[in-house]
Amino acid sequence: MKGNMNNMMKQMQKMQKKMMKAQDELHEMSFEASAGGGMVTVRANGKKEITDVEVKEEVVDPDDIEMLQDLILAATNDVLTQIDEKTNATMGQFTKGMNMPGMF
């Protein structure tokens, strides 16, 4: 019984190392989303930190600030969704078949 427990602990440690490596790789990834046909582009890393916002000059209209705000929001929400989907796909492989509330 003790040998079985040690083996299980080794397997858990191995899985934990793989999970940490996968998480580190996710954090290093770059994600990009655009809105308005490329008029607004938002870039972020896997930590969900916005690293760049690019706005094309021709979309800046002082009489229509709401449109620019909507484009920025759309691109930002899209890039964050991409990060969530990639994180769930990557980290979900470690919890398949496990009933672990609160895990991916």
UniProtKB/TrEMBL annotation:
Keywords: Cytoplasm, DNA-binding. InterPro entries: YbaB-like_sf, YbaB/EbfC. Pfam families: YbaB_DNA_bd. Residues 1-24 are annotated as: Disordered. It is found in: Cytoplasm, Nucleoid. Residues 1-14 have a biased composition (Low complexity). Homodimer. NCBIfam families: DNA_YbaB_EbfC (TIGR00103). PANTHER family: NUCLEOID-ASSOCIATED PROTEIN YBAB (PTHR33449). Binds to DNA and alters its conformation. May be involved in regulation of gene expression, nucleoid organization and DNA protection. Belongs to the YbaB/EbfC family. This is Nucleoid-associated protein NP439_00185.
